[in-house]
Amino acid sequence: MSRDQGKEEVLRVIAETGVVAVIRLASAEPLLQVAEAIAAGGVRVIEFTMTTPNALEVLAKVSSAPGASIFGAGTVLDAETARSAILAGARFIVSPVQSSEVIRLCRRYGVPVIPGAMTPTEILTAWELSADMVKVFPAGVLGPRYLKDILAPLPHLRLIPTGGVTIENAAEYIRAGATAVGVGGDLLDARAIAEGRWPALTERAAALVRRVAEARG
Q1: What is the DSSP letter of 162?
Q2: Which of 60, 183, 189, 190 is the most exposed place for a label (fewest CB within 10 A)?
Q3: Is residue 17 part of a domain?
């Protein structure tokens, strides 16, 4: 598969499933089990944050493992980290902020980049810098109506609200025009992970995917 084909495949899966799981763990040990559990529920795209201990080493390990999941790197703040994550196997890069250096680096490597932005000016600037999608963060501060208001004059944007998005309100963001939603803590039950109750994660993932599909109608 060529670099461009790989990039388009990632973007296609994000758009089709409508969900990006944001995994922020105190320990990276259960990452593969978490990925397998939520993939069984239909969530295949996983943003693995660089704030996790030994994140790059773990990313390299899980990215080479067989399975349906697509792993990307999140909380990427600079071009050096973006390059290291890509070389470790990240298939997409997510940042909580807008960095032109990160966007340029990802374009150079042919890897999808999803920078974070909040205001209309920030969001449009990220798009004009060739972001593939824009992470609206923190989305929970202003809610789904804000997303709808942004897209009214800018309907060509592909937005992924993240931060405060839950299984319960994900459908509202999709109906407001989100291409996908980024969901972390509400999807990844910390107690279930600690106790190794993987079917519980599968059930939550399936519920989230179902609500997204229903919202799309």
Answers
A1: B
A2: 190
A3: yes
CATH number, domain with residue 45: 3.20.20.70
Using CA atoms of 121, 115, 5, 184 in order, give the dihedral in degrees to the nearest 10: -130
18 part of a folded domain? yes
Residue in 61, 135, 148, 195 annotated catalytic = 135
Is-catalytic flag, 9?
no
- The answer to whether 129 touches 103, Cβ cutoff 8 Å, is yes
Considering only the C-alpha atoms of the chain, give the largest distance between any 2 of them, rounded to a whole number of Å.
47
How are the residues of the chain apportioned to helix, strand and coil, as percentages rounded to the nearest 5? 50, 15, 40
Q: Is the peptide bond before 161 cis (omega within 30 degrees of 0)?
A: no
Quick check: is 135 catalytic?
yes
Query: Contact, 63 vs 90, CB < 8 A?
Result: yes
- Is residue 217 in some structural domain? no
169 pLDDT above the threshold of 60: yes
Taking alpha carbons only, the member of 96, 87, 26 closest to residue 56 is: 87
- When divided into structural domains, the chain yields a total of 1
Q: Which of 16, 29, 47, 101 is catalytic?
A: 47
Is-contact 63 71, C-beta < 8 A?
A: yes
Q: How far are the Cα atoms of 29, 92, 164, 173 from residue 179, in angstroms, in the given order?
A: 31, 16, 16, 9
Boundaries of domain holding 146:
3-211
Confidence (pTM): 0.95
What pLDDT, in 10s, does the model give residues 59-72? Answer: 998 888 888 899 99
